[in-house]
User: Fold these one by one.
Assistant:
Number 1:
Amino acid sequence: MKKKLISLFLLCLFFTTASAQKKVVVVENESQAPISDQRTIKRKVAIGRFSNETKYAKGLFYDKDNDPMGKQALDILSAKLAASGKFLLLERSDLDKLSQEIAKGDVANQQIGADYLIIGSITQYGRKNVGNQGVFSSSKSQIVEAAVTIRIVDVSTGLIIYSDEAKGMAETKSKSSFGIGGKQGYDATLSDKAISAAINKLVENVINKCTDKPWRSYLLSSDADATIISGGASQDIRVDDVFAVVKKGKKIKNPQNGLMIELPGKIVAHVKVIMLGGDTPETEYSLVDILDGSFDASQLNNYYITETK
């Protein structure tokens, strides 16, 4: 009888020990933007500094310009946008300078070299430990929750075209029975996972907002020798691509909010890419032939380049 009881006890101990394992649970939205076979010219996106608006990790020697949590969020967003294949990312750390350039209007687009500026902030962050103690077993959980806000600025107008906040959570669990099982220590990766879960809920909207508006480029120079537009190979511009030259519409002031509104422009010419040049995304250019129409070469700021429909 004693042997049977001992055998039964050992059998129960085996199964409870086998089930006492540590596991990681990450709550995040895996929805991604649908993949399209149609080729699209990559938008240039400058990612500004992510700020940490929480009190977490802000000790006596805290340096807001080198905040580790803000850098975590920036790196995560950069990776997710790059994975979409729709953007040429231009990281920018001097947000104050960018804001000043945006305030200048159309000139800012030439100085920043981007179509959109993304600004982010971590608005909430919390870490907690919870547990349950039973007669024969106990469990402990380590939970991190984070909230992230993202804003998209159209560099050509300085207007915020998208702003939203999302929350994410990451959790580790450990369970033990009869004092045997996984022991849970401090898990530093939970911060990344919680922030990533929050950003992942916003990525699809960010991609859609940045690609809804037609792609634009600008005339850099035009004379008897050559006509050159901004943008090149890294944006997936190719030789023989045909673009429209659009004369900017009239700007009028909205009396309700005081903002300037640009009316729809008019196509005045078409150009064809004959050569690509430049060493970096910021210095790339395309040499084009004028197929039809004309424009005033002395007033290049009055025109922009866009895709033909």
Note: Helices lie at 2-19, 68-84, 95-102, 106-112, 190-212.
Number 2:
Amino acid sequence: MEIALGIVIIVLAVILIACVLLQSGKDKRLSGSIAGSTDNFFSKGKTQTKDKILSRITTVLSFVFVILTVVLYILVANKYH
């Protein structure tokens, strides 16, 4: 049971890292001026939608990650207590 939960936690951690890295930064002004931003009206809408989805996925995965970590801790603590 502990091994299965440990594997699930590791997979969730990797997916969580990927979701965080895929999100664009909140402050794009400086990077856009250096790199030459080509944002137009339509691409801004797509970026905001993608960021909203990634933000929600990140929030849900974080919550599940914390809950599973606490459950695993309780299982292991009760096993050796």
Note: The CA atoms of residues 17 and 29 lie 24 Å apart.
Number 3:
Amino acid sequence: MKTVRQEHLTRRQMLLILGGVSLMLSLAMGIRQSWGLFQPSFIRDMGITTADFSLAIALQNIVWGVTQPFVGMLTDRHGTRPVVLVGVVLYAAGLLISLYAQSALMFTLGAGILAGIALSCTASQIALNVAARTASPANRSLVLGSVSALGSLGIAFVSPLAQSLITGSGWQMALVAFIALAAAMLPAAWFAGGVDRIEIGTAGSQQSVREALAEAARHPGYVVLATAFFVCGLQLTFLTTHLPTYLDICGIDPNVGAQALAVIGFFNVIGSYLFGWLGGHYSKRFLLGGIYVLRSLFITAYFLLPPSPTSTLVFAAAMGTLWLGVVPLVTGLVVHLFGLRYLATLSGIAFFSHQLGSFFGAWGGGLIYGMFGSYDPAWMGAVAIGISAGLIQMGMNVRPTPRVERERGSGLQVAG
């Protein structure tokens, strides 16, 4: 394949790559973040329990996390296009199995395992890897924020569509619509794969993947970054999985749950772009830590007040602004510390920690509710570890590795 340097990309080539990866990310995440809307219908019609549903979504997140580093390695070695195309096919297969599932086991296979692998290939980490390789160093943080923002539009579109179809035509028709959206991801994934033509550069080019992993494991800042990322997954997946059920318990119209997810998606667009821009001008570690702390404060305020449609939508707007703003910041910090060569691999490993948090957010929330008959212990725990992680994140070591400092001439030129 004929390669081209990033600075020699035409505007059309850049727009096709970034537009394709943004659409792919938008649809992948829109579907993923709408699963909670199906929970009441599946419990009623499929005969599964809240714990069964929570476990399937928890497994989706843990499978996504476990497979993400390996998918990253495959991407770094064989290119983006084959990985994302396979991911789209797996996504459609998982949705199809969920549509015809007659048991918790079949639902877990489709919505849990296959969807989890598919997300490794099509969602945030691979998408931001594409964006980072396509953008120039000067504009990288802004481009990462922009792709994350455009990728956030999916939930604003998909969640209301799903709830409308569930209410008017049944959950089966909503899943059929999801399969159609997965088909629309195929051309988007193909264009995103155009990033394979871009030369990576010299940074880290002489490293093996084993050497890159050892280098990352020795860096205390990377360890803090990956550990704090756990909290991000826990808080967000707890909300997307259990907020619709919490509202149902409180006697609030189920359409409010879909509206809340749509509001999250809309404000996520603003927040992702905002934090991408801020990350190019201010300390990424302080911005990250601030996001974790602010989320925790908003969760506290929401669950302490009596729930209402208005308070729910205000809460959704606040959380949406802070939703995926972490992703361009985390990706930018990994590039700052280690360069681009093994970005997909190293960001994938950090994302595994995120998905461990997602697992506990989805499954643990259901488990705690089953034990106590209340979500109070769950949100209190999410708040406590969120504030702790935010403060630790602010103290992260952001000095690039000696190798990167030598290759850049001065690794301290990029703010962390």
Note: The chain has a mean pLDDT of 87.
